[in-house]
C-alpha cells in the first residue's frame, strides 16, 4: 500500500507541474477516473449482453433438442413397421389362399413362408431370439414362472421348458424369456 501511495505522490507532482504550464490538462485528469468508470460500466453491459445471449442460445438449444427427441421417439419404429407391412401383405395373400385352396400341403408351405419372412425381417432389424432350454437359469435373462422337480441331477437349476421366448435387440434384452426351472 505504501508503494502505491508513493507512486501516486510521484505521479501527482509532475501532473501539478503540467497543470501549471497548460491549464487544459487539468480537466483531463479529473475526466480520467470518469472514463475508467464509464469503461467498467461498458464492460459490465457487454458481459450482461453476452450472458443474456448465451442464456437465450442455451434455452433455444434445450427446446430444439427436446423437440428432436420427441420426433425421434414418435418415428423410432417407423423402419420396422414399414418392413413389417410387407409381411402383412404376405399374411393377407396367405389368408386368401387358405380360403380358396383345399390342398393342405400348399397352405402349410405358404404359411411357413410367411413365418420365415417375419423371422428374417426381425433379424434384419437386429432382433434375435434367446436360446434358453437346457441352459443355466439366469435372472438377468429369464423370468421363472415355476419350478418343477427333476429326476436328473444335471437339470437342477437349468431351464427345463420355455413358455415364452426371450428376445434381444442388438444384444440388449427387450423381452425376458418366461421359463420353467428344474429343482
The CATH class of the largest domain: Mainly Beta
How helix-rich are the residues, as a percent range? Answer: 55-70%
Query: Remind me, CATH topology of the largest domain?
Result: Nucleotide Exchange Factor Grpe, Chain A, domain 2
How large is the radius of gyration?
Answer: 40 Å
According to CATH, the homologous superfamily of the largest domain is Head domain of nucleotide exchange factor GrpE
Q: Output the number of helix runs.
A: 4
The quaternary organization reads as single chain
Provide a brief overview of the structure:
The protein is of the alpha+beta class and 183 residues long.
Map the helices and strands:
Elements: H1 2-21, H2 25-75, H3 78-100, H4 104-124, E1 127-129, E2 142-148, E3 159-164, E4 167-169, E5 172-175, E6 177-182
Parallel strand pairs: 2-6
Antiparallel strand pairs: 1-4, 3-6, 4-5
Essential attributes:
183 residues, alpha+beta, Nucleotide Exchange Factor Grpe, Chain A, domain 2, three-stranded antiparallel sheet, three-stranded mixed sheet, 4 helices, elongated
Overview of the molecule:
- The structure is a single chain.
- Residues 1-28 have low confidence and may be disordered.
- The chain is 63% helix and 16% strand.
- The protein has 3 domains: 32-76; 77-125; 126-183, Roll (Nucleotide Exchange Factor Grpe, Chain A, domain 2).
- The strands form 2 sheets. The protein has a 3-stranded antiparallel β-sheet with strand order 1-4-5.
- The chain has helices at residues 2-21, 25-75, 78-100, 104-124; strands spanning 127-129, 142-148, 159-164, 167-169, 172-175, 177-182.
- The protein is α+β, with helices and mostly antiparallel strands.
- It has 4 helices and 6 strands; from the N terminus they run ααααββββββ.
- Strand 4 (167-169) and strand 5 (172-175) form a beta hairpin.
Amino acid at each position: 500500500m505504501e508503494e502505491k501511495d508513493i507512486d501516486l505522490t510521484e505521479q501527482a507532482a509532475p501532473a501539478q507541474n503540467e497543470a501549471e504550464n497548460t491549464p487544459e490538462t487539468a480537466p483531463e485528469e479529473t475526466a480520467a477516473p470518469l472514463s475508467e468508470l464509464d469503461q467498467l460500466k461498458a464492460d459490465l453491459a457487454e458481459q450482461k449482453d453476452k450472458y443474456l445471449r448465451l442464456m437465450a442460445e442455451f434455452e433455444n438449444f434445450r427446446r430444439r433438442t427436446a423437440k428432436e427427441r420427441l420426433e425421434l421417439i414418435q418415428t423410432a419404429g417407423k423402419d420396422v413397421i414399414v418392413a413389417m407391412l410387407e409381411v402383412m401383405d404376405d399374411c393377407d395373400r396367405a389368408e386368401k389362399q387358405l380360403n380358396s385352396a383345399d390342398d393342405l400341403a400348399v397352405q402349410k408351405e405358404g404359411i411357413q413362408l410367411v413365418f420365415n419372412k417375419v423371422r428374417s425381417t426381425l433379424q434384419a432389424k437386429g432382433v434375435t431370439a434367446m436360446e434358453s432350454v437346457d441352459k443355466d437359469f439366469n435372472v438377468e435373462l429369464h423370468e421363472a414362472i415355476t419350478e418343477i422337480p427333476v429326476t436328473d441331477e444335471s437339470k437342477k437349476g437349468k431351464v427345463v421348458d420355455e413358455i415364452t421366448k426371450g428376445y434381444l435387440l442388438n444384444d440388449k434384452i427387450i423381452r425376458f424369456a418366461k421359463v420353467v426351472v428344474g429343482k
